[in-house]
Amino acid sequence: MDFKDLFSSQNVVTNLSTTDLEQANNYIELVKAFARITYQSIYIIDYQRKAFEFVSDNPLFLAGLTSKQVREMGYSFYQKYVPEADFQMLIQINNAGFDFYQKIPLKERKLYVISYDFQIQDANKKYILINHKLTPCFLTEDGKIWKAICIVSLSSNVSSGNVTIEKLHADQLWELDLQTDRWSARRKINLSEREIEILRYYHRGLTIHETSEKIFVSIDTVKFHRRKLFEKLGVSNMNEALHFALNNRLL
């Protein structure tokens, strides 16, 4: 396997029109500003140059390197710091993602986000599981992705994969079965007002007893809602529930 396999033949960007180029005026400064105020790692892919245009200084995605070193390595960074099985999975996800993308109407293509988990080395040469989200930033006039922005955070899952595509403001998302390479649609998870309250108070460090006093219910009722929340999100504790909710913009 080679990192060049991560570039899809369905998204070859060669020549850029004047209209294409005008999109990108000074946008990088906004990305740099956002990177300064978030705990997540951010980087930008340039599909024409097949390179990383920007990599933030957050250490989560850097594998012990500097952001400049990762930027200069570009896609070969994946090949060196992602385990072989996960690297092959990334190629599979990339191909399936662009197959899906080709079916999206041109005017809607910026509304979609693909999310998946994979392992990467940290500064201590140990593998950690990260969540990786990618969305188009600039398109060419014929709808190819010219530049995409990627957000990296710690995953709340226990294994690699968990591939989804989500459309902004839509009620459903699509999941990729890595065994069959098929996408299937399902309804997005929605939290009740009570579940959101319980998560927010947990985020603030309140105990079950303190939460029950805040929302004027019994301790047993808080425990009941927590159990239902775990079942709904497929997690086993409040830490995992909070991480899942934050990572999936449920709060």
Mean pLDDT: 92
* CATH class categorisation of the largest domain: Alpha Beta
Run of helices and strands: HHEEHHHEEEEEEHHHH
Count of helix runs? 9
Strand-residue fraction?
25-35%
Total strand segments: 8
Query: How would a textbook summarize the main sheet?
Result: 8 strands, antiparallel
Q: What is the global morphology?
A: globular
Q: Which assembly state applies to the chains in this document? A: single chain
Provide the domain count: 2
The amount of helix comes to 25-40%
Give the gist of this structure.
This protein has 251 residues and is of the alpha+beta class.
How is the topology of this model organized?
Blueprint lengths: L17 H5 L4 H11 L3 E6 L4 E5 L11 H7 L2 H6 L2 H18 L10 E10 L5 E13 L5 E10 L6 E7 L4 E6 L4 E6 L5 H11 L4 H8 L3 H15 L4 H10 L4
Antiparallel strand pairs: 1-2, 1-5, 3-4, 3-6, 4-5, 6-7, 7-8
Helix pairs in contact: 6-9, 7-8, 8-9
Provide a descriptive summary of the structure in words.
By secondary structure, this protein is an alpha+beta fold. It folds into two domains: 3-187, Beta-Lactamase (2-Layer Sandwich); 193-247, Winged helix-like DNA-binding domain superfamily/Winged helix DNA-binding domain (Arc Repressor Mutant, subunit A, Orthogonal Bundle). It has helices spanning 18-22, 27-37, 67-73, 76-81, 84-101, 193-203, 208-215, 219-233, 238-247, and strands at 41-46, 51-55, 112-121, 127-139, 145-154, 161-167, 172-177, 182-187. An eight-stranded antiparallel β-sheet has the order 2-1-5-4-3-6-7-8. The two termini are 40 Å apart.
